[in-house]
Amino acid sequence: MENSFSAKGISQYREFPILLSPVLLFFLYLALYALFENKLGISHTFATADTLFEAKHFEPVKETIYRSAWGISLIISSVVNFYLLFFCIFNIFMFKSTGLSRNIVFYSVLFSSFALFIYIYFYADLGGGIAQKLYEHINSIDKFSELVSFEKAIDLTAGLGFVGVYLVSILLTYICFRVRNLQYLGILELLKTFKALFYITVTFLSTTIAQLFFQYQWFSVFISPNKNVVVDIVFVYPLIMSVFYVGIVVALFIPTSEVLKHLVIRKASIKDPDVSEDELGLLFPKMSGARGILENIKSLLLFTSPILTVIVADLVKMAIS
């Protein structure tokens, strides 16, 4: 009876935050909007009645539009990032046992995540020096250095984003170790977590590329006020980062998929020799393309979605410009 009650309590504990997720995400969205409105002035314009239609060293109306688009995309990617962080931390916490060695590993993961965020937020220049030059140029305009905290917003979201991907790698490692000690039905449940993690990570990286695209469109107002001039960094940098993000997805999920498949097949062959490899392959339809060419195409689209995001964004931009 006590064990049954304990198991029921744990099950309710796992489900409670999941059931609350819609309303929690709603309030998170509003809170982020209020934060970025205060720091970035998403709906605020620096255009005045006298300069509204004049061509200065930057175009206030165009700047307002791009800053608003970047701010909204930043909110969307941040909401997905927070969800990814919560998903990873929650599942890593549920996997942790009362053993001293595993507790040490768990708290080491949390401490290293915090250290990674501090490093990126305060010390790292993720733009290879180019971003800092852009920051200095924008800060030379007094209005923005005083009223728009764009550097803090970029560093904050970049730091949380890298922590999110780091925790994804940790959770995938936990899943690989956990599979070895579960029965077949438990493995099925664990693979659902694996697939959910894959979809959330891909969504996060794609929305991050979208906000990066708008961020560099906003930078373009300060780099060149001439809309007919193509600024190389504005066009190329989001594309470069999209390739980097596709590399993250491929590097994390394809090897993990193969490791899990090998472990599950080996475990199932011992427990049930009649279970074929093809049947077990169906547990990884999105990864292996086990259901034919349509699944292979779907897998390709999912893995390359960060690149597709920036390509579609650039095509739309060229079509309306």
TrEMBL record:
Transmembrane intervals: 16-36, 69-92, 104-124, 156-175, 196-214, 234-254
The entry's keywords: Membrane, Transmembrane, Transmembrane helix
Protein name per its UniProtKB record: Uncharacterized protein
Species classification: Bacteria, Pseudomonadati, Pseudomonadota, Gammaproteobacteria, Alteromonadales
